[in-house]
Amino acid sequence: MMLTLVRRTLTRAATLFVVIGTLLVLFQLTIVAMATTIADGSGFEGLARLVPAFLSSFLGETLMSFAGMTSIGFFEPLIVMMVVQFAIYLGTEPAGDVETGLVDLVLARPLSRHQLVTRSLIVMTGAATLLPGAMSVSLWIALRWLAPPELVWPQSHRVVLLASHLAAVGWCFGAAALATSGWARRRGSAFAFVGVGAVGFYLLDFVASAWSRLEWARPLSPFHYFRGAEVLAGRTDPARDLSVLVAAGFVAVAVAYWQFQRRDV
Fold first, then answer.
1. pTM, 2 dp
2. CB–CB of 224/150 below 8 Å?
3. Residue 52: pLDDT above 70?
4. Residue 234 CB coordination number (10 Å)
5. Cβ of 135: how many Cβ atoms within 10 Å?
6. What residues have CB less than 8 Å from 157, skipping those under 6 apart?
């Protein structure tokens, strides 16, 4: 029965997954093509000077080299939010089961409630992992296809770290969506709560990075533990940051199992 539940979820989310995955792959191809054009032309120094000072903490030195620019897709705000919001969407499926009454039909069989949470956890974890993985593979293909051999490519271990951080922050918010679904009776409400919250946390980290009076609040945002430009430059503690994101996700998953098991459906 678990395989049936997973298969049903995959079928419903397959089109959206393919669309998002295609967009991410195309973005990687495009950014490598742009970086190659800039490297063959005016160079990266002029481009870096155009970046406003308040964006320096987010972009760092990424626009000053071919390796940096081709890695920017892993922490570009739109790309990050696309992965995060898709993980949130998948994590809210238990609330959708309650809303549509599917949970009553499923639980009429000899099944435990936690299997509904496990189903969504499996699919959400897979999506949060596969999307950054597809980005990494497409980056390597784009570099092999488009980049001149004399240019310095991104270091493999830095790309792996960036992909791992993107997967971890997506999984963290997906787990929060699972926990919220333990209370919500409508999928739209759960998605809106966590989805808007993700945007709010991103804005908090962005504003706090530029406003010293709000600096104390940065650790409250999960995005504080995914500073892409600093990861690329080797100025972070990846073990600590990934541990915080994964631990927060596990706490949310535990809450999801606990609440869904005791809720009145």
1. 0.91
2. no
3. no
4. 11
5. 24
6. none
For residue 122, what is the DSSP state?
H
Residues 6+ apart with CB under 8 A from 226: 75, 80, 165, 166, 168, 169, 241, 245
Residue type, 114: H
Q: How far apart are CA 19 and CA 33, in angstroms?
A: 21
pLDDT digits (tens, 9 = 90+) for 190-248: 999 999 999 999 999 989 887 888 888 999 999 999 988 888 888 889 999 999 999 99
Checking 238-241 for CB contacts under 8 A at 24+ apart, the result is 238/161, 238/164, 238/165, 241/165
Three-state DSSP class for residue 211: coil
Residue type, 209: S
Which of these, 199, 205, 158, lies nearest to 54 by C-alpha position?
205
Nearest Cα to Cα of residue 82 among 128, 28, 39? 128
CA distance 110 to 62: 54
Count of the separate structural domains present in the chain: 1
What tokens does 121 get?
């956890």
Using DSSP's 3-state secondary structure scheme, residue 151 falls into: coil
Q: What angle do CA 137, 131, 63 make, to 5 degrees?
A: 65
The answer to whether the CB of 231 falls within 8 A of the CB of 151 is: no
Residues 6 or more apart whose Cβ sits within 8 Å of residue 195? 85, 88
* 145 vs 148: CA distance, rounded Å: 9
CA distance 147 to 199: 34
In 3D space, the residue among 114, 82, 77 whose CA is nearest the CA of residue 97 turns out to be: 114
Q: What is the residue range of 29's domain?
A: 2-262
Tokens of residue 253, six digits: 């998953």
